[in-house]
Amino acid sequence: MTAMLNVVWLQSGGCGGCTISLLNSDSRDLFGSLKAAGLCFLWHPALSEESGAEALEVLERCASGAERLDILCVEGSLLRGPRGTGRFHMLAGTGLPMTDWVRRLAAQARHIVAIGSCASFGGITAAGANPAEACGLQYEGELPGGLLGPRYRSQSGMPVINVAGCPTHPGWVTDSLMAIAMGSLGGGDLDEFNRPRLYTSHLVHHGCNRNEYYEFKASAEKPSDLGCLMENMGCMGTQAHADCNIRLWNGSGSCVRGGFACVRCTEPEFEEPGHPFARTPKVAGIPLALPTDMPKAWFIALSALSKSATPKRVRDNAVADHQVVVPQTKKPGPR
Amino acid sequence: MTRLVVGPFNRVEGDLEVTLDIADGLVRAAYVNSPMYRGFEEILVGKDPFDALVFAPRICGICSVSQSTAAARALAQAMNIEMPENGERAANLVLAAENLADHLTHFYLFFMPDFARNAYAGRPWHPSVKTRFAAVKGSATTDALPARAGFLAIMGYLAGKWPHTLAIQPGGSSRSVEEAERIRVCALLIEFRGFLERRLFGDRLEAVTALDSEPALRSWMKQRPPAASDFRLFLEIADDLALGRLGRAGDRFLSYGAYPLQGKPLFGRGVWDDGMAPFDPANVTEDPTFAWMDGPGKPLHPSEGVTRPHAEKADAYSWCKAPRLAGKTMETGALARQMVDGLPLIRDLVAASGGNVRNRVIARLLEIARVVPAMEQWARALKPGEPFCRQGPFPDDASGVGLAESARGSLGHWLTVSRGRIQNYQIVSPTTWNFSPRDAAGMEGPLEQALVGTPVGDAERVPLAVQHVVRSFDPCMVCTVH
Q1: CB of B97 within 8 Å of any CB in chain A?
Q2: Binary contact (B174, A223; C-beta < 8 A)
Q3: CA A25 – CA A11 distance, rounded (Å)
Q4: Does one domain contain both A173 and A251?
Q5: What homologous superfamily is domain B2-480 in, according to CATH?
Q6: What is the ipTM for the molecules in this complex?
């Protein structure tokens, strides 16, 4: 391992949930292993000892270039309001908008990592009329731009690395930081929204434990039903890029395993789906948003066929909150 | 008189700035500024009422389930729907998991590391505290984080994920539980109890909750050396630094009551103001005088509350409005919950020395010891096969109030729905109560009161005692500045 990389973490227009999620890591020794991987946290607002003036000294040393800044992590959206002044978040003790601090530090950083969908794209704070003028570091929703502008590149030549998710999975953060530390995260390892492919090369649908219900289009109709959440309950797991049902959350969970829809929280503009989150928009009874990489006509034809072939067990269980028909043990037959 | 602006405060959730007027080594006046505005109350207007279940938890990553709970209860009141027993137990388990994980995070990661600072070198307890509690590096971090993550595996079973679950519904939980999962949740609780009894308390949980007076606590202390457990070590520090004389606010306490089951909460609802009184939600107001907020300029009940930011407002100094109960400030949090519920040790401690840094921390830790046995009962009593969630239609025009207790105190959501859309949504969070600015009458908020009289050393740029007082409230600024 080469020299330690200096990491500074800032929080702005978000909920702090990505840090809280990071602490849910299933590592036996989270900070010890990050350190062993070559990552040295100079300052993290929720964890470090330094407060007030001591903390500002660390930031000032990095912003002025006196201290090397290898990785700048930003959690939370950047609040440009009101009217572009940035006053909706003045970094305490400095009288300066947080957006100014982020611009100064971004100019020095070797890598910059957006932690969560807010810092990546604006996220939940950008919903509705976006009263706080929230945006991401390098995106405003789906549009390149954001606080730093589309042409921004960090000292390494990389754009902002968007570890999107609401919140992020602890593994997405630790894997991305470790990949940077190992020098193995290059431009080709990011997807079209500059998210690390190490977690966005899968769909939330992959590994979904409701897959049998999906195959037979046996759908849940109300919260706590066991069936597929796509047809009625607003689930967008077939279009959301993330490995939530492969990696799992808090040991054994995921949104669909919790009985509720995937709201595609790793995607830009997830906060404004254009319909109530927990209700699937339909035209003539057919969900509007079908899997993107197959012809709609085929999907509908296959659905009709599979619905007509649905076993009673699957059909009945789909609309119950426990298995009312359990899989049968095969009766012993002649050998 | 000199003026000191302190911020950013590390190890509080979100950004915080405190301005102190200091004379003769003591804080004479404090002004608490929540320096961020996000606008959730504006964002929610016009949305489908159920969308509140997606937005509310995202107000805060550390009180996420509390926000969900308040939103679900506001919707439930509007729908006139109640949870089945399984739903109540599952929802209680999920909220308790969040609240206890937050208490643990606060103690191990946010509060205790300040005593490991070099400024305390020379104190008899400092070497062991430094080894155990130094920020990030201390051995406690390596102990407490895996214990916390293991405990939060409960969320994997009951909530899908944490933070930001959608499992808490007005009619119960979207996550039904199978028999094998019920057993695994019980197993996780057994493991967590083991950590608490070995490391945090060094004693059985039941032995800790049985301590019923200050003398009983003192004799428990004397029976074991400071290094016997983390709680014991804290008590040693608290005595040496007189934390029981630091950070006293108004000694008026508010709790909305926590963990209901069949109409009865585990911890009761009420107000302590020189004795118990019932809580009347009609008496809650928010005063915008010193907040960067436009509006009618007078205190309003949250059901009529207005949120219109005005960054240039003269004399304002925070994004936080000033909540009052019948015109009075209220302290809220674990200490308030246990005062209102009447836990003998807490009543005794507060009778002797009021709400202060030591008593707030003791109440938080005792609450962990009280809630884990309740969680064990809820988990054992889950009945796979019986309903977890009731359903019902949502009326086109309705209103509802959702009251919940998060780790750091009383949280309320006030919802009005008109023609099937949210017409008004007002949130009054615990730290809004505790870190309130002054009101029109000039009455300071609880932290502002608590900081008056706090000692400040000559050379201190970030006064340590001030930090202890601030962190003793376990503030959540991101909730405050929703």
Answers
A1: no
A2: yes
A3: 19
A4: no
A5: Cytochrome-c3 Hydrogenase, chain B (1.10.645.10)
A6: 0.96
